[in-house]
Amino acid sequence: MNLTPTQVNDWIQFFQKEIPNHVTDTRWQHILRVASYAKELALAHGYEDPDKAYLAGLCHDITKQKKMDVHQSLFTEFNLDTNGIPFQALHAYSAPLFLKKNYDFYDQEIQSAIQNHTLGNPKPALLDQILYAADFLGSDYCYRNLDLEEWFQKTKENLDFGIFMKAFQTISFLMEKKEIIHPYTFYTYNQSLLSLKEI
Ligand SMILES: [Fe+2]
Ligand SMILES: [Fe+2]
């Protein structure tokens, strides 16, 4: 069942107060930027409920700063197999479970967008793509970068630009640290680059 506009608004009000209890101020500032970018990109790319995109942004990193045992106990409780999911992506998988368990908050589209915001996925829905790109635009890396406004404009014109930038940035960062790169991230890099080259 889809969330009504009133429900979306009520949840936004609620999570604006609740999320800061779970993250540091720096992370909260990132979350607010991601939520705003998600709403803007939703408007630019015809996603039917821009406020719902904002809500997805608000919730996307709620478990980012939780310890391993919090993630693990959620995976056990909800019987979710996270074998092969790199450590830095665990929060994306635990966040929807945390939202369900603690607030009885669930929406299928938001769940998918949050779960896929770190690794990407082979068949992303529109909201998945919006949140993935918004997470890049709202990153500390972008916040410090003079090209941010240009990147935002380009992503408003073509969502694949922001998606490519995030996959590129993630892969470069992980290679630099000699970390494992999940196949979904390579896939996201290739798909977004191919579609940019087609234009
Ligand atoms: Fe995240
Ligand atoms: Fe994030």
TrEMBL record:
Highest taxon above the source species: Bacteria
GO molecular-function terms, A-Z: bis(5'-nucleosyl)-tetraphosphatase (symmetrical) activity
Signal peptide: none
UniProt cross-references to SUPFAM superfamilies, sorted A to Z: HD-domain/PDEase-like (SSF109604)
SMART domains: HDc
Domain HD/PDEase per the UniProt entry, residue ranges: 23-151
One protein family per Pfam: HD
Keyword hit for Amino-acid biosynthesis: no
Catalytic activity: P(1),P(4)-bis(5'-adenosyl) tetraphosphate + H2O = 2 ADP + 2 H(+)
NCBIfam families: bis(5'-nucleosyl)-tetraphosphatase (symmetrical) YqeK (TIGR00488)
Entry protein name: bis(5'-nucleosyl)-tetraphosphatase (symmetrical)
Primary gene name: yqeK
